[in-house]
Amino acid sequence: MRDVLVVVDMQRDFVNGALGTAEACAIVPAVTERVKSFEGKVIFTRDTHTADYLQSREGGLLPVEHCLRGTPGWEIIDELRPFCTEVIGKPTFGSVVLGERLRELDGEERIGCITLIGVCTDICVISNAMLLRAFLPETPIAVEAACCAGVTPESHDTALKAMGACQFRII
Predict the structure, then answer these.
(1) Distance between CA atoms of residues 160 and 44, nearest Å
(2) Residue 76 · residue 31 · CB < 8 Å
(3) Which CATH number does the domain housing residue 129 bear?
(4) Cβ–Cβ < 8 Å for 148, 118
(5) Are 13 and 120 in contact (CB under 8 A)?
(6) What's the CA gap between 117 and 94, in Å, rounded?
């Protein structure tokens, strides 16, 4: 059995760029240490938009260009880039490709636990947690609160409570 760590959207635009927050900056050391010390498979997700983002449904509701493919803000932060052996791009909050990839890995060797860390707790972390639960309903899934940051501290806490209510282990 192997464990999997999913590092959600630790990109420049979400840490200290267009949509960055002090809370996202504050978790960088803990996230970096968690990735360095993790004994298992590490998969990163990368929010990926195109130049027409502002014309998309999401862009109409969040009119801030961010994570445009090929821009500096799209890149995984420097501290984590050396550990990026597998990166899954995603055009929206949750990634079906991530779900398919983890189901494939589980078929090769049973996954003991999936742990999610990263940003934003209240958007992409919760979306991917819910999606992974649908793909692997019997696999334990945890969210490491100290290695996550939300849009606001309040929305971070709300997302953690919602995930706890949905039987995710909050650590």
Answers:
(1) 20
(2) no
(3) 3.40.50.850
(4) yes
(5) no
(6) 14
* Tens digit of each residue's pLDDT (9 = 90 or more) over 6-32: 999 999 999 999 999 999 999 999 999
Residue 20 located in a structural domain: yes
Which domain, by its residues, includes 135?
2-47+77-170
Q: Which residues pair with 120 in a beta bridge?
A: none
Contact 44, 119 (CB under 8 A): no
Confidence label for 1 from pLDDT (cuts 50, 70 and 90): confident
Residue linked to tokens 């635009």: 13
pLDDT digits (tens, 9 = 90+) for 56-87: 998 899 898 999 999 999 999 999 999 999 99
* Structural domains counted in the chain: 1
Tokens (6 digits) for 58 = 């999401």
Q: So what's the pLDDT on residue 91?
A: 93
**CA-CA distance, 54 to 165, in Å (whole number)?**
34
What would the two tokens of residue 38 be?
A: 């993790």
Strands 41-47 and 169-170: unpaired
